[in-house]
């Protein structure tokens, strides 16, 4: 904190330096915001239970999830209760 005060004191003594200091602070805030927003990813989870036409659960069913844009294909198998989950879906 003391180094920031010293830096601010030096800038305040030089004419026009307050404008430069303000510009640098704003630039730093913009860069920090941009970097943090690129670090976020939007993903979701798909969970469901597989039923047959009579309404009974289907254990061991193979479920396929395909991303039509990327061509990514993921498969899973339902558990003994017919339940399955896909995580980190984009």
Description:
The chain has 90 residues and is of the alpha+beta class. Helices cover 38% and strands 26% of the residues. The protein has helices at residues 2-13, 17-38; strands spanning 44-49, 62-66, 73-77, 83-89. The strands form two sheets. A two-stranded antiparallel ribbon has the order 1-4. Strands 2-3 form a two-stranded antiparallel sheet. A hairpin with a 6-residue loop joins β2 (62-66) and β3. α1 packs across α2 (17-38). The chain is rod-shaped. The two termini are 42 Å apart. The relative contact order is 0.15. The model has no long low-confidence stretch (mean pLDDT 78).
Give the helices and strands, then pairings.
Blueprint: H1 2-13, H2 17-38, E1 44-49, E2 62-66, E3 73-77, E4 83-89
Antiparallel strand pairs: 1-4, 2-3
* Unreliable stretches: none
**Sheet of most strands:** 2 strands, antiparallel
Number of strands: 4
Fraction of residues in H or I helices: 25-40%
Number of helices: 2
Task: Supply database-style keywords.
about 40% helix; about 90 residues; alpha+beta
Question: In a nutshell, what does this entry contain?
Answer:
This protein is of the alpha+beta class. It contains 2 helices and 4 strands, in the order H-H-E-E-E-E.
């Amino acid at each position: 904190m003391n180094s920031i005060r010293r830096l601010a004191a030096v800038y305040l003594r030089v004419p026009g330096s307050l404008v430069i200091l303000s510009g640098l602070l704003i630039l730093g805030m913009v860069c920090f915001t941009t970097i943090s927003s690129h670090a976020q990813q939007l993903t979701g989870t798909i969970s469901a239970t597989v039923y047959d036409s009579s309404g009974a659960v289907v254990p061991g069913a193979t479920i396929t999830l395909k991303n039509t844009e990327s061509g990514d294909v993921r498969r899973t198998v339902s558990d003994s209760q017919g339940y399955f989950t896909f995580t980190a879906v984009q």
